[in-house]
Amino acid sequence: MTGQQVNPVRRSRRTPRRAALAAMVSLLLAAGGVVGAAPAHAAASDLCAQVGYNAGFRGGGLVTAVAVALAESSCDPSATNTYNNTPPSRDRGLWQINDYWHPDVSDACAYDAQCNANAAFRISSGGTNWQPWTTYNIGAHQRHMDTARAAVDRLGHNGPGPAPLVYPAESGRVVSARSADGRLEVFAAGANGVHHAWQNKANGTWSAWQSLGGPGNAELAIGPNADGRLELFAINGDTFQHRYQNSPSGTWSGWETFGEGGKDIAVGSNKDGRLEVFASGPVGVFHKYQNAPSSGWSNWEPTGGPANSRIEMEKSLDGRLEVFALNGNVFQHLYQTAANGSWSAWNAFGTGGHDLTVDHNRDGRLEVFASNPNGVFHKYQNASGWSEWEATGGPANAQLTSERSPDGRVEIFAINDTVAQHLWQTGVNAPYGQWTTFGTGGTEITAATNADGRIEVFGASHAGIYHKWQTGFTTWSDWAWVNTTSGPALD
Fold first, then answer.
1. pLDDT at 366 over 70
2. Among residues 469, 470, 451, which one has the least CA distance to residue 131?
3. CA–CA separation, 65 vs 69, rounded Å?
4. pLDDT at 7
5. Residue 40: is its pLDDT beyond 50?
6. Signal peptide position in this chain (predicted)?
7. Could you say which of 84, 152, 174, 487 has the lowest number of CB atoms within 10 Å?
8. For the sheet containing 210-213, what is the strand order?
9. Where residue 31 falls among pLDDT bands split at 50, 70, 90?
10. Is the pLDDT of residue 37 over 60?
């Protein structure tokens, strides 16, 4: 990584279309003259309500989805926009799915009402993140809310449905997650405690680093409460503390004691929204969980498992949390026997190693990567359970992280003392290509996604914290300081 100091300027991946275009589409719809409109629906909004419901939007989320579609396309499945798009590209169909940022959505899909709705449901994380739509960001959907609500009422399916799955964030000495308003927040654990920086707006530039105190040289984990407040956990050999947002996207509490010291931690949310925390130490792995969503905590409970292990957590497609723990000699796996339920015994998952990362395919199958002195190895769920371990190459004894591209492809990032490298799936749910150079060496790496779907990677070194972000579907910025300062050094 370089020490180039720049203050990156984010460009929204969608731009408002001309008001005249939207007005013209609305008038054509009112006159019944738009090609592709569905005559079986009493109003254009009824089509959006029906396909939105079929895609999985529910309750108030369905109303918002219909309002966004009305602002985007006037609920015309054949609508196309190219005006002022950077890079040159087309917004297509009901929810105006962009062909540059989402090339996995074919034209045949984008101009099919139901397929477009399915894509909008996936891109919006089940209706929880509308930041990729400029009409939502500028509030243009608000004037359509009454029309959208009436369409949902006519449909008769406006009750609440199952909440979309919330997947755990990567844990480590640097962690990042999005606040409820879409802004990324990043935390880094230096020798003098934890440091914090945040985006000034969703997809935007960054604040200066702020020192928070707390445990020095800690391992960190971060997760969202059911009410939208982020909660941060920090552990070192002597201390275990946590702090939390006082309101969604709001100010933070001070540090509070959460337990005794240990090696590593991971946090994830149950299907019902209750957070679960796992921590490793000299006698194995312990866990603690919220008694109710966004509420108080249980006592610590021993689970067995590998002593002084690195821990990561993921979520299966059915909502069950799964925990993976690795030390120098042993790799083991623990999982819930039912969503929100009890836990299995620890199972052997492989031999020991240095670090691990876990992610999920777009079809929900889990992918596990682990590093050791011979490089990076890979194991994944298949029809019969789990594959065998497969060698991928990559840096020896690397720190690992993973994240998903806007189209759902898993991307892996690895760093050791001499090199940073990058590996990604060649297609959705597909095999991986070859490792490519991603920078020079460092001490820690983590990845998160912006509100618009672009991956942002944070790399730590003895000099401070850098970041690098997608500038396009397959292109990246250079490494740069977060804001214009180095932040904490991580040895």
1. yes
2. 451
3. 6
4. 27
5. no
6. 1-42
7. 84
8. 174-178, 184-190, 193-198, 210-213
9. very low
10. no
DSSP-derived secondary structure for 308-339: T-EEEEEE-TTS-EEEEEE-SSEEEEEEBSST
Return contacts of 193-196, CB within 8 angstroms, 24+ apart. Answer: 194/218, 194/220, 194/232, 194/234, 195/465, 195/487, 195/488, 196/252
- The CA distance from 237 to 206, in Å, is 31
Q: How many CA atoms lie within 13 A of 16 on its CB side?
A: 12
Q: Which residue has the tokens 């395919």?
A: 361
Strand partners, 197: 186
Tell me the pTM. 0.75
Q: How many helices (H) and strands (E) does the chain have?
A: 7, 32
**What torsion, rounded to 10 degrees, do the Cα atoms 234, 281, 447, 7 define?**
40
186: left (phi over 0), alpha (psi -120 to 50) or beta: beta
Cα–Cα distance measured from residue 45 to residue 66, given in angstroms and rounded to the nearest whole number? 7
3-state secondary structure of 32: coil
What does the block give as tokens for 160? 């609440």
Helix, strand, coil share (%) of the chain residues, nearest 5:
15, 35, 50
Query: How confident is the prediction for the chain on average, in pLDDT?
Result: 88
Rg over CA atoms, the chain: 23
Residues 6 or more apart in contact with residue 399 via CB below 8 angstroms: 172, 354, 355, 371, 414, 415, 416, 442, 443, 444, 445
Contact 359, 404 (CB under 8 A): yes
Over residues 199-258, the pLDDT tens digits come to 998 888 999 999 999 999 999 999 999 888 999 999 999 999 999 999 988 999 999 999
Give the model's pLDDT for residue 428.
87
What is the pLDDT averaged over residues 333-340? 96
- Spatial separation of the C-alpha atoms in residues 94 and 79, rounded to whole Å: 7
Q: What is the pLDDT confidence band of residue 162, given thresholds at 50, 70 and 90?
A: low
Q: Residues 167-194: pLDDT tens digits?
A: 999 999 999 999 888 899 999 999 999 9
* Alpha carbon distance 344, 271 (integer Å): 17
Q: What does the block give as tokens for 223? A: 């997760």
